[in-house]
Design a protein that fits this description.
Blueprint (H helix, E strand, L loop, with lengths): L11 H14 L11 H8 L3 H13 L3 E3 L5 E3 L9 H4 L8 E2 L14 H9 L14 H13 L7 E4 L2 H12 L5 E5 L4 H9 L3 E5 L1 E2 L2 E2 L1 H9 L2 E7 L12 H11 L6 E5 L19 E7 L1 H4 L6 E5 L1 H12 L7 H11 L2 H27 L11 E5 L3 H10 L2 E2 L1 E2 L10 E5 L8 H12 L10
Parallel strand pairs: 3-14, 5-6, 5-9, 9-10, 10-11
Antiparallel strand pairs: 1-2, 4-12, 7-8, 11-12, 13-16, 15-16
Helix pairs in contact: 1-3, 2-3, 7-12, 14-16, 15-16
Length: 446
């Protein structure tokens, strides 16, 4: 695709603008390879240093990535708004799409009745001076966090988990600083780190969370922040165990130079105990979103932390977005207080566990070891992602390539189980087994 794109410009600014234009129009799609620096310099009649500056500026903004011997490529999800038509390839007709990483809409609690009740009791409009965290929501949030052992004396609200993490990193770090992230880890977080100009250090993990040796290595390499997923880690389903939490607490105890961020995005949907590290470092934050259990469109997360950290996030919000809508706060409060909603969320969590554990068992019958201790995803190591994805596509299944989530971790596939029917587990496992270990008659070597 990039070979047909006509680059232009005689300055670093103009060349980088030309590349961004190609990304916006879809002529340079995610993953597209860019010409080598010297080749593009010769094509445009400029010095290699000029092209190198353009590439460097786009890398620092998270638009491009250097892939070693594979050269420079457009990041899988660059922070440049593309035309809608190129954001996501059209699925093949009749394909089962298990790539999205979203909860099953059929299992989300209905919000219509609560919206109607709010409309009937709207009260006078809220003005700028009255906006902020509603005291009754703060009280309810503290009770829910305290029940899980998370200290919540100081808290604020953000527009979802990723918004909270972005504000935390922006409040404590500067471009060029290193941040330790799980590897494999949440693709959106990896893209955010790149867009902020931060330097990611991958931390390996197993089913019980980040490996202690990996965290120690990241700290030795200068990491100024550490982001850990408490439960339902995306993409592997890992959940921090009691033993791992104890080891990590011993390693991190008393660190004054490290911002510890815990992401509990699955919240009520994760049916494994929470083992929080909150308070072990001088600067810390615990972020819990409502999007997974109650609906992705509910852009609200509770952020608890030390006094200074919460004050920084609150202050930055105040000079930007201002506050999280009090209408949304009242809706979330109503959902939290409805026993019927609690029961629906509980049933959804049970359903996800059944589907996830069922797929793990079906894969095991084919001799395949996958990961998925909690959450809505299964992580399946594979020898080669491209061939496996192609074979699955031909068989009518769409899953996510592991490359979106990896820094240095081995190849794998991410399968979202949230919409799977029980009767689909066996044929899906068989299709995955054939894709990973194709028979000779399929045209692949074993």
């Amino acid at each position: 695709m990039s070979a047909r794109y006509q680059f232009s410009g005689t300055t670093a600014v103009a060349i980088s603008a030309s590349i961004e234009s190609g990304i916006r129009t879809g002529a340079l799609p995610p993953g597209a390879a860019l010409p080598p620096v010297r080749a593009l310099a010769a094509e445009l009649g400029v010095s290699p240093a000029t092209v190198a500056r353009a590439y460097r500026e786009l890398r620092q903004r998270g638009v491009l990535a250097t892939a070693g011997r594979h050269g420079t490529r457009v990041r899988p999800r660059p922070p440049v708004a593309a035309r809608r038509s190129v954001l996501r390839p059209a699925p093949l007709p009749d394909a089962r799409d298990l790539s999205r990483g979203e909860p099953d809409p059929r299992l989300l609690p209905p919000i219509g009745p609560h919206l109607a009740a709010l409309a009937a009791d709207a009260g006078p409009p809220v003005g700028y001076s009255q906006a902020g965290v509603l005291p009754e929501l703060a009280e309810a949030a503290r009770a829910r966090l305290s029940a899980d052992g998370v200290p919540a004396g100081d808290l604020t609200l953000t527009g979802g988990a990723l918004d909270g993490i972005e504000r935390l990193l922006g409040a404590h770090l500067r471009p060029g600083d290193a941040v330790a992230v799980e590897d494999p880890g949440w693709a959106n977080l990896l893209d955010l780190v790149a867009a902020l100009g931060l330097r990611p250090i991958g931390v390996p993990l197993d089913d019980e969370g980040p490996l202690v040796a990996g965290v120690a290595a990241a700290l030795s390499a200068g990491a100024r922040a550490l982001v850990i997923t408490s439960r339902a880690q995306n993409p592997t389903g890992a959940a921090v165990s009691a033993a791992r939490a104890e080891e990590l607490r011993a390693l991190l105890a008393g660190r004054r130079d490290l911002l510890l961020i815990e992401d509990d995005h699955a919240a009520e949907l994760a049916r494994v105990p929470l083992h929080s590290l909150a308070g072990v470092t001088g600067s810390w934050a615990f972020v819990r979103s409502v999007s997974k259990p109650f609906g992705p469109d509910l852009r609200l997360a509770v952020l608890a932390g030390d006094e200074t950290t919460v004050a920084r996030v609150t202050g930055r919000t105040r000079v930007g977005a201002g506050w999280v809508s009090t209408v949304l706060q009242r809706l979330v409060l109503a959902l939290w207080g409805d026993p019927a909603v609690d029961e629906l969320v509980r049933r959804a969590a049970q359903s996800y566990d059944l589907r996830r554990e069922g797929l793990l068992a079906a894969l095991a019958e084919h001799g395949l070891t996958a990961h998925g201790r909690s959450g809505i995803n299964v992580w399946l190591p594979v020898p080669d992602e491209t061939s496996a994805l192609t074979a699955l596509r031909d068989a009518g299944w769409a899953v996510a390539p592991g490359a979106l989530y990896r820094i240095a971790a081995p190849p794998a596939l991410r399968i979202t189980v949230s919409s799977l029917a029980v009767e689909e587990l066996t044929p899906l496992a068989a299709a995955l087994a054939r894709a990973i270990h194709p028979s000779p008659e399929m045209g692949f070597s074993t």
